Amino acid sequence: MKNGKEFLQSLLDALLPNRAAPVLAKVIKAYEGAGSNKYACDVQVLTAGTLEETDQIIAEVPISPIWAGKKKRGIYAIPPVGQIVIVSFISWNSAFPFIAGIWADEYEADDFKAGQFVITDGDGLKIIADSDEKKITIDTGKAQVMVNGDKIAIKNGSKSLFTVLDTLIQNLIGMTTTGAPVKHTVDPASIQKFMQDKQDLSLVMEA
Hints:
Layout: H1 4-15, E1 23-30, E2 40-46, E3 53-62, E4 84-89, E5 97-102, E6 116-120, E7 126-130, E8 135-139, E9 143-148, E10 151-156, E11 159-160, H2 161-173, H3 188-204
Antiparallel strand pairs: 1-2, 1-4, 2-3, 4-5, 6-7, 7-8, 8-9, 9-10, 10-11
Helix pairs in contact: 2-3
């Protein structure tokens, strides 16, 4: 007569003959390019706890994207080779694997705050969408483009496009001529127009 454990094992074998619990795996190949079933990886199953490699390889495991829709809409970022991922199975059926996420113990998060959506390559390139401040920043590590509410800013080191344009307008206002017969300056009507340009610039850009 079977004991309780053996009975439960037999019942599971009968109900779920191809059952498979979630496993940890290492990405050994990442697919690229557009098309159906392209957002996938080949993975090598690891032993939980020790992360030792096993002989089990699962090919073309689809990735569960952050968001996706019809007509190629979506957010795509293929895991790099060597990344440890969590592989789950639909209805615990080994015939239907998918990459559910990145294993938390095997990556280091970049700086972020609540209310932010951050995309970074970890080497200076960063895109930040801040829902609280209504601000989007694109930073290459050398230059920045920011959309802050109803204003934009473009910076490169210590210089900003706003500062450059504002200085240019100011220089035009103070422009004079040299040589005979007499020195000329910008006429008052033109100066007024330039001042309006400075005001308009401050409405759409910031330093």
